[in-house]
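re: that complex we talked abt at group meeting.

here r the seqs, copy pasted straight from the sheet so there may be weird spacing, ignore it
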Amino acid sequence: MEDQELLWLEQARRGDQTAFSRLVEAYQRPVYNLCYRMLSNAPEAEDAAQETFVRMYTKLHTYQPDRKLSSWVLSIASHYCIDRLRRRRGQWLSLDEELMATTLPSQNRGPEELAVRAESRDEVQRLVDMLPAAYRVPLILRYWHDLSYAEIAEVMGLTVQAVKSRLHRARLQVIEKTPAGSVLAMTPAGVLG
Amino acid sequence: MHSDFTMLMSVALDDEATPDELQRLREHMRTCTACAGIWERWQVVDRRFDAAPLMAPAPNFADAVMARIEARSLRRRQTRRYAAGLVALVLAVSLLGLATLGGMLYWGAQNPAQVSSVFFAALRGVGTATWIFLGVLRLMGGVGAPTLAAWVGLLATLTCLLSILWLWVVGRDHAGMADPAAAS
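got the structure back, here u go
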């Protein structure tokens, strides 16, 4: 499969759009999933995933064959999503200020309404959303893409030790931020085999 | 104090722990109930994450990407064309300017007396225009709106200058008709 993809890549470098479209088809799901899990919003994830492939297309000549193609594509996607989250944070800060000024009287929502709202969202996604972008990427790559520490390190441009440490901190934060009685209400399966 | 072991738990969940590390972790959890509790909670979360589905994009995703690439390259081609046109225009204007300047310098070298008379006439013209402009500005000072006054002043100055030019042209034509030898 990897050989076929490298062939498509070579053809795409020479301007073959059909070959590039095959590459898009091969990687659309992992790229879209990464964007979705990072941004937690379907239309924004679609846009980010498309932008990832546009960037990939314009950077085709910079690809180094010694690198895994999937790592390269996911690296473009994760960097783009991190940038987007940073921009979004700035926008949300200003939006929050506006809301503070205009919607103070309606803040007294009942606990039932808040509970219904919380339950209606994907619980796992909600846990991911609570993490800083730097911790989200390794967690997503580990759980949804089954990448090893070495592969995550390659995607993120970090050392294996740094990946190990980020995953550890991400897990600590997930547990800290999990409200009692939600995910943790489930019964654990087994202990160390 | 337990952070070494929580780190080991994280590595174990990722299947990256060595047999020795796993053995250490097992032995520790036999005596430490706090760590055993954390391990249980982490396992639950781990299974929950593992079960979360891989999200898929819309069916026409690849087509949308290719359309976006095409639109982007079209825009880039257009920008390149506009930039090339702008460069050509700037070059043409520069060449024209240089040719005009060269011609004027050449003409000035051939007719030094006329150069000074043209220069002083231009200077006098600028002086007259400034004098008229300032005069009208002073007249309009009473209006109380400086911007409006400036615009009216400028328009009045231009009208005066055009009138003077028109009178000069008409006067020259009349002089030519009165004395055909001078006109020729």
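couple things i noticed - Residues 178-184 of chain B have pLDDT under 50 and may be disordered. Residues 45 and 95 of chain B are 73 Å apart (CA to CA).
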